[in-house]
Structures are given as C-alpha cells and as structure tokens.
Amino acid sequence: MKTKQATALAHPNIAFIKYWGDKDPDLRIPVNGSLSMNLDCLYSQTTVEFDPELESDGLLIGGRQPAENAIQRVNQFLDYVRHLADFSTFAKVTSENNFPTGSGIASSASGFAALGLAASFAAGLELDQRALSRLARRGSGSACRSVPGGFVQWLPGEDDESSYAISIAAHDHWELHDCIAVVSKEHKETGSTAGHLLAESSPLQNARIADAERRLDLCRHAILNRDFQAFAEIVELDSNLMHAVMLTSEPQLYYWQPATLDVMQSVIEWRADGIPVCFTIDAGPNVHVITTGDNSPAVMEKLNRIPGVLEVLIGQPGREARLINR
Ligand code: PMV
Asked: What DSSP letter does each residue of 198-240 carry, written as one string?
C-alpha cells in the first residue's frame, strides 16, 4: 500500500438532551437517546496518513503527544478502521482543536468525528453518513452526533448497526447561539468514559432514563417549532437531571466550580427578566449559555462581567463533518 492521506474537519456539539451511561460500554451503545447542536466556529481538524514505513501509529494533538490513554484509544480506533479496510499499515495522526480540550467542551466528539472521516477516507473506505456516525461512536459516543449537520438526534439503538445519529433540522433552521462561559481551562479529573461507567451506581439514574424519551420529544418539538420557552425549560431540566446522577454516583462526580453556579443563577434571573436564555453543562465546569442570535451580543457582555468567567466562546449551529483539501 502506498502512503494515503486525508484531512477532515468536524465541530463539537452541545447536547440539549444528554447521553449519560451505556448499555454496552465497549460499543458505546447509550442507555437513552440524545439531542444536540453542532457548534460552528469551534472545530477539530485532523490529518491521517497511512504510511508503510511506519512501525507504529503516531499521534500529535496541538503539536504535542497526548497522555498514554488517549494514544491507546486512538490506536484501538485505527485498528478497527484497518480491520474494516483489511490492511495493517500504521498511521500518523495530527489533530488541532481551536478551543480548550478536555474541559467539558466536547473535544472528543469533534476529534473522533474528524478522525473517523479522515481515517476511513485515507483507508479507501467510502462510508455513508450513517456508517460514519457508527464508526465515530466507537471512539466517543457523542462523536456520532458531530457527523451529521445542524440539529442532531442520536437514535440509541440496541447494537452497532442500530445506534447512530441523524440530522433533524439543518444548521440554518434556527439561529441559536451557544455562549460558552469558560470558568476553567483545566483538564477534568474524571473523563466521560469513566463517568458513564459510574452512572448506574446512582439511585437516580433509572428515573432519569425512564423519563428521557419524553424530554427528548419535548425538546425536538421545541426545536422544530422554534419555541424558546419550552426549549429552555426542558434543556435545563435535562442538564440538572444528569448532574444529579453525577453528584449521587459512587464515587460522586462533582464537575462544578463556584463560578459555574454563579453563571447558572444569573441565567435564571435573566430569563425571569424576559431574555430568552438557558444553561446546560456537560462533564466539566464550563457553562453553555444558549440564546437567540439577536440576544447573544448582550448575553456575552453580561457573562464577561461575572467574576470567575475567564472568557466567553461562541458557537452557532454548525454543519456536518467534512473532508478538506481534497
Ligand atoms: O461522548 P462522551 O463519552 O464524551 O460523553 C458525552 C457526555 C456528555 O457530554 C456529558 C453528554 C452528551 O450527551 O454530550
């Protein structure tokens, strides 16, 4: 095999209805369906080069070698691509993120969506969007949602075949902005892969799962009807339910910082004052503050004034994962 190379770009996504816990941790088949929006402006860009001269896979993220467990995770993922393509050549992978990694801004989602597309294309596999979503899911569950564009639903399924994500509305359907209040740039102690394994130790997880489909339906309708009030209520409820599970797991997972709570409290007050705004938080301390496009400059300004907010990033509805420099 000659050297084969491809570069892909994918956006992270913010989950409005969260994925927390797996039915099958190896295949990352989730216990419940989830719903998200891709975040334009933020991205991972990944180049994969299969080279017969290499004696092992190499990985650089932001010009540096990442921790051993990240290298292993990428090796395992590339092994699966090699298995699908039926060859054994090693690869050099270089990836860049234009946002802080590992702090609750889904860098693993954009990372594995871009890696899946670049690796499969360089390996000569022509995967359709559904197959690509299934492939990305094996690297990081939420990565399957960074493959299709715009507003995306992950159909949980029962097995590898049936668990993948689809777009429910294009990126230009609703101009929602995600103003990400960064309160810490530290790498989180417990990543989501370990967190998913703890979910069922919480006595609240079963109640969260039992009601998940109802929340997902409400959220999907709110998005399709561009109904911000209904959207805000269900998004905050879903985020709070996931964090309630995290806080009551054994051992407990506590991702928030004092500034996280300050932002949550402020957002609730701003909404009571009539601003269309709500919060949602992933497995990290940073707060995703969702608002409409016309309100985002004012919301960003308000967030920047809260002590403890280090910076505010912005994500608008983003497109699907795509190849570049073809
Ligand atoms: O895909 P993972 O393993 O990084 O899990 C993502 C978990 C959350 O971000 C907390 C929720 C979600 O649905 O994105």
From this structure: HGGGSTTHHHHHHTHHHHHHHHHHHHHTT-HHHHHHHHHHHHH
